[in-house]
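anyone else get weird line breaks when pasting these?? whatever heres mine. first is seq + tokens for prot A
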Amino acid sequence: MRIEVGYGLEGTMADSMAGRIIQYVMTPKFKNGDYDGGITDGARAVIDILEGGEVREIADDKRGAAEKSLFLDIEAPEMAITERILFGAFIFGIIRLFTIIGVLTPGVGWFLYLFLIPFWAMFSIIVVGTKNALICLATYMTVFPLAKFFLGNSRWYEKIKNDLRTKGKTSIGGFVFSSGSSGGSWSSGSSRSSGFSGGGGSSGGGGASGSW
């Protein structure tokens, strides 16, 4: 399903509003097979907004129940699936890089393990929501120590520790790590648009899509 917003209405019917109508007003009805009710309620919600009102209270209630954290009053921001994918690729690409460095590096790796915990927790909420963020965090906190345990028994890992102990530095994937009094340090060596045209005119101010 999709709500297509015409030119000139972007300021009144923002993409986020169209997304809320689809997700919290129409989708529940569609899931229950009440397509007439979903379309009717969706049309009423659109009219309410165009007349200066807001999406019905049911939208806010359902969003709060679905997205609020069990411990904190945190909600995931409204983003289209393409925005979540792009933002997630950027964020997780960075923290995964530092996670891999932490796993492969003796000493300072445990500092990175603790340092990255809030990043895995908070950024995951933005991308995948509260419940899935908890799964991501639990996976990270479990897999990281296990990976370091298994690598710790390998010859390659022993060589890295020996280089740090004897030479004071080592190289891992282009990154140079050096030991010191603080435990270690490292340095590196190295819009969306939419539109629709039909016989009666064109629209391309924005909108939102959804499924059920």
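and prot B, same format (seq, then tokens)
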Amino acid sequence: MTFRLFIYYCALGGGWAAFLAWGLLALLGVATVQGKSLGEVALIGTFLGLLVAAALGLVDGLLNSTGNQRYVRVLVSAGIGLVGGALGAVLGTALYEAGDGQLIWLVAGWMVAGLLIGAASGVYDVLQARLARREVRQPVKKTLHGVYGGLLGGFLGGFPFGLLRDSQTLPLSGLAIGLTVLGLCIGLMVALAQVFLKEAWVAVETGRRAGRQMMLSKEQTTIGRGEGCDLGLFGEQGIEKVHARIMMKNSRYVLEDANTPGGTFVNESRVERPTPLNNGDAIRVGSCRLRFGESPKQR
């Protein structure tokens, strides 16, 4: 998946997930907000947060995970999103009613929801790093990027939601449109923050996975044909189950070969020891060529 598609699918997934949340709410008789108790408002936020966070976790998993890690990421993201959505909806509504109906308070609640939805996938990476007893610096940065995007998405989507939720001209569809716009804004802003604030990445240039791009958001990223590898190059010639690793050492990304018979190459020089990577370096593993990228602020 390319970063452009990542942004597109996050926005699309967030919008459709929010619309699905409205559909489920309508089945439960909560198709509008008017006259609803805080408990029913919490239910609206719960469905929104759960489904939008799960959708974003799935898209993030398709870009940055393999195998069963994707499903665990979705579950963790959904759980955090559930809490965030319920908390944001209740907090925003309570402040809105206490503040004489000022829209900014409702928006503030959705910013809280967006914050936790945006952080959800990064929190999974932090937990994974903790369990593996690895450094959490990179996963924490990813989490913060999601927080920034979620806050902005909640802010941008909160205003149209607030205007549509009590619409007299759209009594039945106002909540549906408002939730969909809110979910789309959160998904779009979280994806944009992750992509534009990324610090390092790898792009596959040749082979069956050509065109795939992957953000480096962990202290160690494995490359190989094994299912557990972070960057899976399945079915390629000359690639071992675990072929190479990109690691963060002393604030530099370095490439290490995993003692493979065919070797790993940087700019066609065989890697004999952990080798520092520079922006634009070509990496060759087996029959595949990768390209390492790093934002200027890192250097």
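btw re prot B: The helical segments are 3-27, 38-64, 69-98, 103-131, 137-165, 174-196. The chain has a mean pLDDT of 88.
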